C-alpha cells in the first residue's frame, strides 16, 4: 500500500529524516524537496516485497534483507541493498520510486553514504543505533551556517529561526570563527536585558573550539562533554565544513539515551537530577531486553553517568558560590575503575579522584568533593568500598606525578595495587591540563623491572578452575563474574596497553591496540587478544543477564552468579573462557619469571 507522505498519518517527515545520515547533511531546501518526492509504503508483518531500483527508508517497524535487520532510520535500495525483503513486524517505509530516486542517489551526500558508508562505516552494532566509536563525525554532521560579527543579535536569532538551527558561526577577520548559540541568546541577551540591536560579537564565544571531521563521533562527543559545550564546528584542514551537536550524536545512538542525557544535563536542581539518575538502571535493562549487547549498553550508559557527574559538579559549584565564590582554580575530576573504562554494569559505584591546580585551595575542593559524593550517592552510585573517592584522594598535579613515580621506584604490593586502581583514569570534568600525569603514567611501560612486577601480579590471580577443569565457586556456590572473570582479562589488557603505549582506559581499545611496543615486544599476540576480547564481551553479557534478573526480582545488584543458574552451554563457555585465561597466563608468566 502506498500514498504520498503528506497524505498519510505519519508527521514530521523532515524532523525524522534529519535525525539520520545521510539526510541530515542535506540543506533544508533539498530535504524539503526530498520529502515532497516521497511516498509511504505499508507492509504487514511477514509480508515480502522487492527492494530494487528505488530508495527505501524505514520509518517505523523492522525489515529483514539479505540476512541483515534494518530498523527505523535505516536506508535500503539505492542499487546497493537490493533483493526480496521481509517485514519483521508491521512496517511503514518512505519510498522514492525508481523514476524519482535516480535524481537523488547520484548526488552527495547520498552517493557516498550508499557506497562507502553503508558497507564499511555505518554497520549497525545494535538495532536502532550506530556505534559512535566507529563512525567518523563527518558522516553525521549538518551544513554550517555563517553570519557576521557585526550583525545584531536579532538578525542572528532570525537567521537561526529561518534555518531551524540552534547555533550560528561568525567569520572573524583573523580567519578564526566565533559561535552564537540559542543558549547565548537566552542567557546573555534575554536574561541580561540587552537590546535587540546588540552586536552578535558581544555575546559570541571566540575563538570557537573546532574538531577534524575525521574524528570519531564518540571522540567528538567526549570532547564536547569535556569542554561543556553542545555545538562542535568541524573542519577539514583549515576549511569549516559542518556542525554537530551533542543531541545529534546521542539521538543516533538510541533516542532514549539522548533524552536521558539531556535531562541530566538540563536538571535545574539536585532533586530533579537524582530523579533522572535513578531511572538509569531500569532504562539500561530495557535496552538489554530489546536485544542490545552489554558492551554497547555499558558505553551508552557511560554517557549518561558522565552527564550525571558533570551536572552534579555544576550544581554543587553553584551551591558553594554564595559562601566560597566560584571554583578558585582549575581542576580535573577523574573517573577510575569500570566506569572510567566504560564497562560498568547496572550498579556502578563511585571510583574517582580529584586533581587541583593549587594546594592552597584544598579547603574549597574538600567541600566540593564531599557534597558531590552525597549527590552521587542519592543518585544511586554507592560509595567505593575501598574508599577510592575524591574526598580522600585529592592531589595537585605535581603530587599525583610524584606518587606514580614513587610507585614505579618501589614496586611493593601496595604500589602494584595502586597501579591497578589509578592507572585506568578518564577525566570527566574540569579544565586542568593533566598531560603531565598521563606522561608519568605511561612512562611505566618503559620501566622493565616494574613492568615485570606488574605482569606477575596480572598472572597471579588464576581463573576459578580445579585440576579436573571444573569451575570452583565460593562457599555459597556462587561465581564472582567481576573479580574471577572480567578482572583477569582487564589486568592482562592493562599491562599490554602500558607496554605498547596505549593511554586509553577502555579494555576493548587496549586489546585492539597494535603498533610499536615500547619494550619491543608485545605482551599479547593479536590472535590471543581477539580471543580475550570475545571472552570479555561474553562475560559482560552474562553479568548483564544476571543483574537484569536481580533487578526484576527486587534484589540487590551484584556480580555473584549462582552456579545453579547456569545453563549447560553457559557452563561450557565459561570453562572455555577460564581455560583460555589460564593458558594465556601460563604463556606470559615465564616471560617475567612468574
From TrEMBL:
InterPro entries: CBS_dom, CBS_dom_sf, cNMP-bd_dom_sf, Diverse_CBS-Domain, DUF294_put_nucleoTrafse_sb-bd, GlnD_Uridyltrans_N. It comes from the Bacteria. Keywords: CBS domain. Signal peptide: none annotated. Residues 204-260 form the CBS domain. This is CBS domain-containing protein. It comes from Deinococcus xinjiangensis.
